[in-house]
Amino acid sequence: MPYKQKRKQDLFRYLLWIGGIILLNILATTYFFRIDLTEDKRYTIAPVTKQMLDALEDEVVVEVYLEGTFPAGFKRLQQSVRETLDEFRIYADGNLRYVFIDPTDIQNDTARATYFRQLASKGIMPTNLHATEDGKQVERLVFPGAVVKYKGKEAGVNLLKGNLAASADERLNQSVEGVEYELATAIRKVAFPSQKIIGYIMGQGELEMEQTADLLGSLQEYYRVARGELSQIPTLEGLDLLIVAKPTKPFSEAEKYKIDQFIMNGGKAIFYVDALNANMDSLGTGGTFAMPYNLNLDDLFFRYGVRLNQNLIMDLNSGFIPVVTGYMGERPQTEMINWRFYPLLNNFSKHPITRNLDAVYTKFVGTMDSVRADGIRKTPLIFTSRYSRILPAPAPLSLEEARMEVNPEQYTAGPQPVGYLLEGRFSSLFRNRRAPAGAANPKVRESGEETKIAIFSDGDLVRNDINPRTGQPYELGFDRYNNIKFANRELALNTVHYMLDSEGLINVRSKEIALRPLDKVRIKEERTRWQLLNLVAPLVLLGIFGIARYYLRKRKYERS
């Protein structure tokens, strides 16, 4: 082949390479993709989160209070938050900015104390961090949280989550798994407030407003909440979710019909129901018996797929109550004694509602059974411990039980489910029946749309205590006798979010990240996020190689 023709071919190939590089650079400035090469997909942002970030109309500012020098575990959480926000910033197209702040860096004691109180008012509570520095044990106050701000609104985020019964490393890993969900939920809370309506039903002896103040107040941060007596409401149409909390009086057939037809038309419902009438106020000095309620709901629950059994569960893994053990003069002496009728539930299914949840405090809870309901998916959410005992009705209740020595042979019933999630197309209780008298719509809908129901066999699960001195409600799940906060509020909110979250953000809680040594994690994390722009460098090298090859061949032809 003549030299000039060969030269033209080489020059044409070289120009093609240059053109390809220029084209790829143009594409890289317009489009991008990210490849997550980690085994557990730690950098993969859920599609629902990407869609939400892309829809932001204004800038979101995230203040993270995890700046400073931390031990390895907290460094991992700090790094996870930073990298998650980096990912968020990319998909938010410039509408997200974050800053890391060290709250303890304020030198003035008064200003620092004021700042700490401000963070606490936003739900950012401190934790004492014990570490070893230069061979000495040191204690440091850490605020593992963030505040998300958007258009004058803000929401606090607690980033230290997980089960307190797990080891410190496991709990920090659970916190890392929940970073995306916690931050995304806070952004949605301030930037995309939901218009869905929750109805809190009254009229059958349910918990009073002050007893559910914390639950309803927490729900109002995300949704619209309405309340009213069921007998006075002609129809439940317009509501998205129904909450029934600890009814003590029977439902009429007309009231059940309203609930049933609401569910048939796609409405969601959550029931917190006791099968037996048991409470501490009725114990007195001689004790009492827990007798069954007549709520007239058994046939409704049975049709939907569960049965509440008329019994009480005693559990060796339980809470403590103050019991008078003697007197010093006229002053009673109290002692905190294990009260086995208050099970602490720390056994959960791997469902987004309950994943990585801390222990839940219950009072006088009963067992539940799953029964046949065609087309319904039944998921047990929460269980007692394996050291359980079942007392059938009438169940004897006495404070003497707390003082008695435990016989382990009586506590062998194993884990008992006390909460079920039901999903599918339900069949109406009034199928092949006439609508009861007084029904607003006498035409019975016998089969329903796809929907969800959750039933828990403890009416006190969402009941907050009242401060006897101030009359103000405590936080839901707060044990005032032992100064411990349990996860009752988180369980209730997660259940509502799952019910009403049509986009599926709650499913981000299912994210799993393997717990590995920090040095190995760091090595992998530094090399596993790729962008299309990173491919330009090899192409440039290819172009240089083409030029060098061209001149070498030219010299070869000149010599020949």
Q: How is this structure best described in words?
A:
With 560 residues, the chain is an alpha+beta fold. The protein contains 13 helices and 28 strands. Strands 9-8-10-11-25-24-21-18 form an 8-stranded mixed β-sheet. Strand 10, helix 8 (253-264) and strand 11 form a beta-alpha-beta unit. The longest helix has 28 residues, at 3-30. It starts with a helix and ends with a helix. 34% of the residues are buried. The model is unreliable at 518-535 (pLDDT under 50).
Placed side by side, the strands forming the largest sheet appear as 9-8-10-11-25-24-21-18
Which runs of at least 5 residues are low in confidence (pLDDT < 50)? Answer: 518-535
How much is the radius of gyration in Å?
30 Å
The total beta strand count reads: 28
What percent strand? Answer: 25-35%
- The residue-averaged pLDDT reads 85
> How much helix is in the residues?
25-40%
Number of helices: 13
Distance between the termini: 13 Å
Structural class: alpha+beta
- Shape label: globular
**Largest sheet properties:** 8 strands, mixed
Layout of SSEs?
Layout: H1 3-30, E1 35-36, H2 47-54, E2 60-64, H3 72-91, E3 96-100, H4 109-121, E4 127-133, E5 136-142, E6 145-150, E7 153-158, H5 168-177, H6 179-191, E8 197-202, H7 213-219, E9 224-229, E10 241-245, H8 253-264, E11 268-272, E12 276-277, E13 288-292, H9 298-304, E14 306-308, E15 311-315, E16 318-328, E17 331-345, E18 347-348, E19 360-361, E20 368-370, E21 376-383, E22 388-392, E23 395-397, H10 400-403, E24 417-427, E25 447-456, E26 478-479, E27 484-485, H11 488-500, H12 518-526, E28 529-530, H13 536-559
Parallel strand pairs: 2-3, 8-9, 8-10, 10-11, 11-25
Antiparallel strand pairs: 1-28, 2-6, 4-5, 6-7, 12-13, 13-23, 14-20, 15-22, 16-17, 17-19, 18-21, 21-24, 24-25, 26-27
